TrEMBL record:
This is Glutamate--tRNA ligase. A motif ('HIGH' region) lies at residues 12-22. It catalyses: tRNA(Glu) + L-glutamate + ATP = L-glutamyl-tRNA(Glu) + AMP + diphosphate. Catalyzes the attachment of glutamate to tRNA(Glu) in a two-step reaction: glutamate is first activated by ATP to form Glu-AMP and then transferred to the acceptor end of tRNA(Glu).
Length: 492
């Protein structure tokens, strides 16, 4: 391992919400920093003033917090290399560009867009394999250039790619050695005529100033990397290690987009996914612990993440696998955790008054609701009969027709009322309730399934509720008997 402390950054552009792909990039940077006892930096790349908004920045910060990706330096956290928003770093870019010009590593170019277009057309016409900038202004003397600037001529600043530079070889931790022909790079623009830096320049000025050791980002930026290497070299700054991670595809093999469903982190949060489950799932899109483990809790990720387990092949977003992982996290929760993180928010979202119950009551409810819950919305639905009363219980029509409004079921409900009514308040426990009901099929000479179905519909309003004894114990004796009385009117 190198002696230099690891410093990585996630640098979203606030031109939209935090996308699933961006979230995965953030997770990898965060996990890499944690696994190497390094520093995780959040930097807001808001240099595109037409598309960046403060609102999007806030949405991204909120999404990062929800994902649990705490940053050591960045907005709100501060840090020694701030500010951490590119719009607040304009002076640094200007100074860096000035220095390159002073050192003869950059030069002003006065070519107009029309001239550049004509050059390109001419290159195309003579089938020149090189169609980049022809370096017309590279030879201007400093005095001449300054005179034209003083005269108010519009210009950009271009970097001088050294003539003898040769190929640029990028050592990528995911893709291996990637070779780019330096001649193809031409003398690219580092400062626009409106005085703003280009992405390739601002990013490198920042990454160098912030002492970034590893640049982990989407592989759509791999083609920018040779230009960035040229900037590092011009600045005299060490080139970091790059790790370009694969794209995320939808099931149809196309780049993940709105067409495939939810693509923003917020949408998953609002749909009730657990942050831990979501981070676990995204981490597996291109990285694996050992090639087979699916449940990788956050602390394991933060300890074990390494770039050599990152795949260069595109990953496919599979909502079913996400749901499976979510269900595993729900299953593994303690009763108290389930109540706090799933059940209570779910009831609140459904507008159900949770009422006043002790912790034993809540734990008993968690035990019957949890196995039937994947998403939080399921919890409120499964628990709905428990929170209803004899007066408010909703009867599902189909369930009534199938289980209750049938010849002989009136007698079943009557028998159940009698057997259960014989139990005292202090005997109103799941085992006693079940035992009282168990006797009925034989006494009535009916199939057990029919008897339990009728009681279930009468008490819960449907045929798919959680176990009867437990549910009735939670509902309470008096209300159960009142429900049976109401159910009796529906039975034949
Ligand atoms: N702001 C750039 C983006 O969102 C950052 C790319 C990089 O990490 O260099 O794509």
């Amino acid at each position: 391992m190198s002696e230099t402390p690891v410093r990585v950054r996630f640098a979203p552009s606030p031109t939209g919400k935090l996308h699933v792909g961006g979230a995965r990039t953030a997770i990898y940077n965060w996990a890499f920093a944690r696994a190497n006892h390094g520093t995780f930096i959040l930097r807001i790349d808001d240099t595109d003033p037409t598309r960046s908004t403060e609102e999007n920045t806030q949405i991204i910060l909120r999404a990062m917090r929800w994902l649990g990706l705490d940053w050591d330096e960045g907005p709100e956290a501060g840090g020694p290399y701030g500010p951490y928003k590119q719009t607040e770093r304009a002076e640094l870019y200007r100074a860096a560009a000035q220095r390159l010009w002073d050192e003869g590593k950059a030069y002003p170019c006065f070519c107009t867009p029309e001239q550049l277009a004509a050059d390109r057309e001419a290159a195309q016409a003579r089938k020149d394999p090189f169609q980049g900038y022809n370096r017309r202004c590279r030879g201007l003397s400093r005095e001449e250039a300054q005179a034209r600037i003083d005269a108010g001529e519009s210009y950009v600043l271009r970097i001088k790619v050294p003539e003898d530079r040769g190929d640029v070889v990028v050592h990528d931790a995911v893709h291996g050695e990637v070779t780019f022909n330096a001649r193809e790079l031409d003398d690219f623009v580092i400062f626009r005529s409106d005085g703003t830096p280009t992405y390739n320049f601002a990013t490198v000025v920042d990454d160098a100033a912030m002492k970034i050791t590893h640049v982990i980002r989407g592989d759509d930026h791999l083609s920018n990397t040779p230009r960035q290497v040229i900037v590092y070299e011009a600045l005299g700054a060490p080139v970091p290690t790059f790790a370009h991670i694969s794209m995320i595809l939808g099931a149809d093999g196309k780049k993940l987009s709105k067409r495939h469903g939810a693509t923003n982190v917020e949408e998953y949060r609002d749909a009730g996914y657990l942050s831990d489950a979501f981070v676990n799932y995204l981490a597996l899109l291109g990285w694996s612990l050992d090639g087979e483990t699916t449940i990788v809790p956050r602390d394991v990720l933060a300890r074990e993440f390494s770039l050599d387990h990152v795949s260069k092949n595109p990953a496919t977003f599979d909502p079913k696998k996400l749901d499976w992982i979510q269900a595993e996290y729900v299953r593994a929760m303690s009763d108290d955790e389930f109540c706090e993180k799933i059940l209570l928010p779910s009831l609140a979202a459904a507008g159900v008054d949770a009422g006043d119950h002790g912790s034993a009551w809540w734990r008993a409810l968690a035990q019957i609701v949890r196995p039937r819950t994947k998403m939080p919305a399921d919890a409120a639905q499964v628990a709905a009969p428990v929170f209803a009363t004899a007066a408010t219980l909703a009867y599902d029509e189909k369930s009534v027709a199938k289980g209750l409004a049938k010849e002989g079921m009136g007698a079943v409900v009557d028998a159940a009322r009698e057997a259960l009514g014989a139990l005292g308040e202090d005997e109103w426990r799941p085992e006693r309730i079940d035992a009282a009901l168990e006797e009925l099929p034989e006494r009535l000479d009916l199939k057990k399934r029919l008897v339990f179905q009728a009681v279930r519909v009468a008490v819960c309003g449907n045929m798919v509720s959680p176990p009867l004894g437990e549910t009735m114990a939670l509902v309470g004796r008096e209300d159960c008997l009142a429900r049976l009385a109401r159910g009796r009117e529906l039975a034949l």
